[in-house]
Amino acid sequence: MAKYLERDAVIALEDLPNIGKAGAADLRCIDILQPGQLVGQSPLQMYEKLCSTTGARHDPCVIDVFISAVRYMEGAEPLPWWSYTAERKRLLKSG
């Protein structure tokens, strides 16, 4: 597992686990400009807003990345984004 900054040192979106330039651009596209804004967000609603805003259907794995970022900012350990695939599949089935 890659080494990540301590949560309180995370200032930029790119400081988050699993968020690179493209992921940060996706978050900015849906008006999330700072990591702290992720707390309390619904990753599924974030994904729907991204698709609506861009007018394109994004890969569902983006939901996994969003889940990982939200969970991390809410106190979870940093995990690879694919650790959240099963959760995404459950969310999509129930939603």
What does this structure look like?
It is globular and about 35 Å long. It has 95 residues and is mainly α. The protein has helices at 21-29, 43-54, 61-73, 85-94. The chain has one domain (10-94). It has four helices and no strands.
Question: Could you outline the blueprint of secondary structure elements for this entry?
Answer:
Layout: H1 21-29, H2 43-54, H3 61-73, H4 85-94
Name a few traits of the molecule:
single chain, 95 residues, mainly alpha, 4 helices, 0% strand, globular, Pathogenicity locus family protein, Cdd1
| Integer-rounded radius of gyration | 12 Å
H/E topology pattern: HHHH
Shape: globular
- Number of beta strands: 0
How many domains make up the coordinates? 1
| Average of the residue pLDDT scores | 93
Strand content: under 5%
InterPro entries: Cdd1 (IPR021725)
Protein name: Pathogenicity locus family protein
Pfam families: Cdd1
In short:
By secondary structure, the chain is mainly alpha-helical. Helix content is 46%, strand content 0%.
